[in-house]
Amino acid sequence: LSIKIPGSEEAMKYQNDIEIKVDGEIVAIGSVKTSSKDRIDKIFLDKLMYNRLTQTNTPHFAIFLHDVQRAGKEPDFRVGQTFLTRHFKAYTVGLSPLDGVYYCDLRPVMKADRLLKEHIKSLDCLLCEDVWKYLY
To answer: HSE-up of 32 (CA within 13 Å, CB side)?
Structure first.
């Protein structure tokens, strides 16, 4: 996707993992990532830049496959959480919330924390329920 930069002849290249289109028009943009660590910022900024450059309010959503990584040293390997709770909250409250955030494997904090629980859902919720809000 190429977005013209206002006041310029140049355009910004914009890559999306998912584009939901209705009658050829983009009605929602999705990003699919293996984890949110070091990637969550980009999705929030992509929404901000895309909507400002196109002067639209196109919904953006994120799908994360997991947020864990191997931790510890051999032979005591364990699984460590990589979800950056404070980063997610800061972008959601201070910038602009994403229109949907979906995980294949919800972390316990995502089920317990009030703000996270409000903004983060399981992937089946996107596939069975929320996808329709983007289409209509």
So the answer is: 7
Contact call for residues 5 and 53 (beta carbons, < 8 A): yes
Digit-by-digit pLDDT tens for the chain (136 residues) are 788 888 888 988 888 899 999 999 999 999 998 888 878 898 999 999 899 988 999 999 999 988 767 777 888 877 777 888 999 999 999 998 999 999 998 989 999 999 999 999 999 999 999 999 988 7
Residues 6+ apart with CB under 8 A from 74: none
With beta carbons less than 8 A apart as the criterion, state whether 20 and 30 touch.
Answer: yes
Quickly count: other Cβ atoms within 10 Å of residue 42's Cβ: 12
C-alpha radius of gyration, the chain, whole number? 17
HEC sequence for 82-116? CCCHHHHHHHHHHCCCCCEEEECCCCHHHHHCHHH
- The answer to whether 48 touches 16, Cβ cutoff 8 Å, is no
